[in-house]
TrEMBL record:
InterPro entries attached to this UniProt entry: SAM-dependent_MTases_sf, tRNA_(Gua-N-7)_MeTrfase_Trmb
Low complexity composition bias: residue spans: 93-118
Keyword tRNA processing: yes
Name of the protein this chain belongs to: tRNA (guanine(46)-N(7))-methyltransferase
Domain of life: Eukaryota
Record EC number: 2.1.1.33
Keywords associated with the record: Methyltransferase, S-adenosyl-L-methionine, Signal, Transferase, tRNA processing
Region spans: Disordered: 89-120
Signal peptide start-end: 1-27
Reactions performed catalytically: guanosine(46) in tRNA + S-adenosyl-L-methionine = N(7)-methylguanosine(46) in tRNA + S-adenosyl-L-homocysteine
Length: 614
């Protein structure tokens, strides 16, 4: 009782001091709230002075601020009638038309109160707002922190409900500008994320045109509040989380359930293998349709990865011991292609004969992002890293920024696996039997790491060639697998059974399926060159190596300058020739081609019509 009387006397003294100041244009009524007795916090956790004042009092503004109030940042009392939905503009924030007048009138009556407002919220979504735009939310969160510390949990809950009921609308252009800046600042040399921002901007513009206007309606966010334990400071924190799916892209994005990239690759390989088994040309219109759907899905994943820090499901960290004030629960924008799946999809598309260079670059970029995420963890084995780089090499993906970045990350991961965290050069993860190497008892990881770093690792390295050989020898055993893959997607793609079985009334759509596959002037840039023929070429790796070779081996028994030759590979397997033609196309080898034909017919046509030396 004595404490209450002392507190009342002290507060009355404050009122007398304020009322005696003639220069002050503000007056306050201090409402003394008689709370029930609560547990006093231990001395080590005493609240700050601002919280002590707010413990027993609630400030209610009576008069409008003075003319010079505009020189100071606006402050808000706990009872401030803040508009539950305000739109952030390029020059500041403005309220929705439904309640802008009431909000502005209440805003003008806000006066300074003794609540410390923190400005250390470094969450990327929050940083989309200016300090002035964040101020109303910061003040309410600070009031909630003070109320919780003082034990006034009823008031704290009221403030939380008000915060969770508020909505903040941020213009898309501001979000995309921030995403572009963040993407350009990435430390890799891959433009995957940068392209994602640009494509998402184009998607929004198209959606606006379809809507018949050019108004940037913006993205609506809700406020998510989390409380820090009293032992760690007792504060409250907040972030912005998307309140709904962006309305501009409804109906424009791919369907993630139907357009799963790995399943599309599975279907493409099934179609090509089924057609090859039946001895008919695959329908490349249907096959390329699967590739286009996969490309659209990867476009959406690019946009999701670029905008993940701004549009992902987020939550404030409840612990202040973390390195960041907020923890973003954002994904890497890889969707269903987590782990090793992007590399598997790349190989399956390559085996089906698809030659879309951009599709493979995007898949390699996703594989790089995933390997960067988990490759150095103890749960990732050396064979998992090798699985990714081997399949990318088996797909015949040429040198470029995306493949170079993947190989650098893989080399770093393998070096960590070799060291094993203890300084040793071998551990259980790098033994030969761990990666299925049954011949020789081990793998030369040092040589593989060196080849990854200098870019020489590729299709003609030992491990990728071994993988292709295993695939070709197991092909007969996998017939049921391929057939089921094609049948499985019959209902998904709404196509005809003939298309999914791989049948086509037209040509293959590549050199190997033309009615006249021996049109030499169309097949080679210079048909007068000497012709190198590989009968039974299989998947064409020998000719792919010779055609891309620019060196003359002085030790060879037959001295041939391969760069001055044309090359043709012949095989009866449409699946093998389709793969070889796809790799040839991506490598831009104008002196190499493959055809599906018998050895007798091929040699007869060459003997009768080839204009050059043979």
């Amino acid at each position: 009782m004595l404490f209450k009387l002392t507190a009342i006397a002290a507060l009355l003294s404050v009122i007398l001091v304020l009322s005696s100041n003639d220069d002050s244009a503000l007056a306050f009524i201090v409402v003394v709230v008689d709370h029930h007795r609560r547990r006093r916090p231990p001395p080590s956790h005493r609240p700050p002075a601002a919280a002590v004042i707010a413990r027993r009092t609630r400030f209610v503004p009576l008069l409008s601020p003075s003319d010079d109030e505009s020189q100071h940042p606006p402050s808000y009392a706990v009872d401030a009638d803040i508009d539950p939905r305000f739109v952030v503009g390029e020059g500041g924030s403005h309220t929705s038309s439904s309640s802008s007048s009431s909000s502005s009138s209440s805003s003008s009556s806000f006066s300074s109160c003794s609540i410390s407002v923190s400005d250390d919220n470094d969450h990327p979504v929050v940083r989309l707002l200016t300090a002035e735009e964040r101020r109303p939310i910061d003040v309410l969160v600070a009031e909630r922190s003070a109320s919780r510390w003082a034990g006034d949990y009823n008031v704290a809950d009221e403030i939380r409900m008000r915060l969770e009921g508020m909505r903040v609308v941020v213009p898309w252009e501001r979000i995309l500008r921030a995403a572009s800046t963040a993407a350009a600042a990435r430390d890799d040399d891959d433009d995957y994320v940068v392209r994602g921002v640009d494509e998402f901007r184009d998607l929004l513009l198209d959606a606006r045109r379809r809507r018949g206007g050019d108004v940037d309606v913006g993205q609506e966010f809700r406020i998510v509040v989390a409380d820090v334990p009293r032992s760690e400071g007792g504060r409250s924190k907040w972030v912005l989380a998307p309140a709904c799916r962006p309305p501009e892209i409804d109906g424009a994005a791919s369907n993630p359930d139907e357009d799963d990239v790995l399943r599309l690759a599975h279907a493409a390989l099934g179609m090509a293998a089924s057609a090859s088994e039946r001895g008919v040309d695959v329908d490349y219109d249907a096959l390329n349709g699967l590739a286009r759907r996969a490309s659209r899905r990867l476009r959406d994943l690019r946009g999701g990865r670029a905008l993940a820090p701004f549009l992902s499901s987020t939550a404030p960290s409840s612990s202040s011991s973390s390195s960041s004030a907020m923890t973003t629960m954002a994904g890497t924008g890889v969707g269903e292609l987590h782990g090793r799946k992007a590399a598997d999809a790349a190989l399956w598309f390559a085996l089906s004969g698809i030659d879309d260079v951009r599709l493979y670059d995007d898949l390699v970029s996703v594989a790089t992002a995933e390997l960067s995420r988990f490759g150095k963890n103890s749960g990732c084995r050396a064979k998992d890293v090798m699985h990714i780089v081997e399949r990318v090499a088996m797909a015949g993906i040429g040198a470029g920024h995306s493949r170079g970045a993947l190989y650098r990350v893989a080399a770093d991961c393998l070096e960590i696996k070799m060291m094993g965290g203890t300084g040793s050069t071998r551990n259980d993860d790098v033994r030969g039997d761990d990666v299925g190497d049954t011949e020789g008892g081990g793998i030369d990881y040092g040589g593989i790491i060196s080849s990854l770093r200098d870019g020489s690792f590729g299709l003609h390295s030992d491990r990728p060639l071994l993988g292709l050989w295993r695939f070709s020898t197991r092909q007969r055993k996998q017939r049921a697998f391929f057939r089921n893959a094609a049948r499985h997607f019959d209902g998904q793609f709404r196509g005809t059974n003939a298309k999914l079985d791989g049948a086509s009334s037209g040509s293959l759509g590549k050199d190997c399926g033309n009615i006249n596959p021996y049109d030499w002037s169309a097949m080679f840039i210079d048909p007068s060159r000497p012709l190198v023929v590989d009968i039974g070429c299989g998947m064409g790796v020998s000719l792919l190596g010779l055609s891309s070779s620019r060196d003359v081996d002085d030790r060879a028994e037959i001295r041939i300058d391969w760069k001055d030759c044309n090359f043709i590979g012949v095989d009866i397997s449409r699946l093998a020739v389709g793969y070889a033609q796809g790799v040839r196309s991506r490598m831009s080898l104008g002196d190499l081609t493959f055809v599906v034909d018998s050895a007798e017919n091929c040699l007869m046509r060459i003997g009768k019509s080839y204009p050059g030396k043979r």
